[in-house]
Amino acid sequence: MTRVSLITPHGRVNRVAVFLDARRQYRLMGPLGWSWPECLRYSWRRAIAWQHSADQLRMERDLGNHPER
Questions:
Q1: pLDDT digits (tens, 9 = 90+) for 15-30
Q2: Between the N and C ends of the chain, which has fewer C-beta atoms within 10 Å?
Q3: Which domain holds residue 54?
């Protein structure tokens, strides 16, 4: 299964990818006691963190404080 980015090119959270990631997380962590809501919460928070870090990098690039790679 191909992993899809949790963030769209426009900087928004890709909800389908979040659910697929939560499903993957549940398959991995379910046997260790994680519930489906815990896995969904984990994936959603990870997507939000990715979104914030992408926003931060975009702001730094726009201000000229971050070197282009």
A1: 999 999 999 999 999 9
A2: C
A3: 15-63
